[in-house]
Amino acid sequence: MNEPKLILSREHYDAAIFDLDGVITRTARVHAAAWKAMFDEYLRRRNGGGWEPFDGDADYRRFVDGKPRFDGVRSFLESRGIELPWGSPGDPPEAETVCGLGNRKNAFFLQRLERDGAEVFNSSIDLVRALRRAGLKAAVVSSSRNCAAILRSAGASGLFDARVDGVDLDRRGLKGKPAPDMFLAAARDLGVSPGRAVVVEDALAGVEAGRAGGFGLVIGVDRADQAEALRSHGADVVVKDLAELSVATPDGVPFALEALDGIMEHMGARRPALFLDYDGTLTPIVDRPDLANITDPMREGLRRLARLCPVAVVSGRDLPDVRARVGVDGIFYAGSHGFDIAGPDGGHAPEAAQSAVPELDRAGVSLGTRLAGVPGVLLERKRFCLAVHYRLVDPGREMEVAEAAAEVAEASPRLRLGRGKKVFELLPAIQWDKGLAVNWLRQALHLDGDRFVPIYIGDDVTDEDAFRALRESGIGIAVLETPQPTAARYRLRNPEEVKEFLDALADRLERR
Predict the structure, then answer these.
(1) Active-site residue flag, 277
(2) pTM to 2 decimals?
(3) Taking the chain (512 residues) in consecutive chunks of 10 residues, what is each chunk's mean pLDDT?
(4) Among 20, 208, 449, 488, who pairs with 478 as Cys (CB 3.0-4.6 Å)?
(5) Helix intervals (H) in 48-68
(6) Among the options 14, 59, 202, 277, which is catalytic?
(7) What domains are defined for the chain?
């Protein structure tokens, strides 16, 4: 899998400062239309028949994008050889001054904003939320005096820790872009050093301001096919969309929900092939395995996904048990950590695993005898596994359980000892695990890499085998409430977030 273009982390940065128009909101087109309406009306009235219209693309980007409104007016007029008196900020819209034309443009803009509202880039909103969740602060910077109104219209007023806008230019005596004053003011308001802050801009004047301010990283967002110009004006990194960026959690693993746009972009025209653990992934971990029941909304979510892509549940539970608990037709199941698979043409189990069944029976009898006096121990006999659950055991007697499981496994040449969350497991001592089971299913179901991207979601130690198996060809997502080492590329915190991720994935697939 392609890595994210950049992973932002609390280790390297304390804050990110975002431009508004073209980065957070889609108001750049509204601004460009307002500029064009104002300038075309003025040029027509001034020059009569022979005048060249304002170019809402080239002229907008070159002369007005990212600059304070009045500076943008003067910059464009100078390009046409027109000189007007500056006037004052309170000039009426009909005044033939720089400020008057600027106020006329603002009237056009507010009319369109009131009529159409402000759209946002969802990937940008997701990134800001991910940064704040990871402990970074966030600010928004805009030369527009309408910044607060735009944020309200977009439903993003509470998203940022600080705002520096066109009102502050006058009130605080700041210079507009390409001067770095507004970004430096935002860094001061956040209480962070510029060298520990990221600037995110789509305008040439904006990236130039970020570079002039000595910020730790300047990211250019190429919304107008000007990647090289953004780099030459000071961008360290250029992306087409903020979905190309990711945020590291405290353990360095990005959250999958915030990375979904990037995951979809990586898949391109391919479909996901979804592999899911059961306990701790589709259901919360509970004290007794028999109480772990999938909810109806989760079950319906799986049915919905099964209509859109291949789905398989790979569990440590016995195959009949997990199939009955999930209860979704049209998907595939693997039990006993992948030793027992219901494939497209019948079942599959390694031959060596079947020969270990009598030894698992003997181990069950031995452990049952040795642990009979330990309250809370639960022995669960599966077809190719013997699980020793000790979640309900007094902590002072857990070592007794561990020693018994280890000694029985050592006395059984055909078995090996595995460990999960509050469970010891005796398994056939062969080279087989969830990673090999997933790859067997991929081959049996003809899920080749040209058409499918495997995604594995799991929460336990045994799922790490699948994460490692898919490291190069697919996507591993670990379900971890707290950070810990993992071979997975992404993280979710609990089954509720798994449900949210699966629903969002289904939404994206249906929109295709």
Answers:
(1) yes
(2) 0.54
(3) 67 93 84 90 85 89 85 94 93 94 90 79 87 87 88 82 91 93 96 96 95 96 93 95 82 82 87 95 88 93 95 91 92 86 70 85 94 93 89 92 91 86 87 86 89 95 89 92 84 94 94 83
(4) 488
(5) 58-59
(6) 277
(7) 6-25+119-247 (3.40.50.1000), 28-116 (no CATH), 260-350+432-511 (3.40.50.1000), 353-428 (3.30.70.1020)
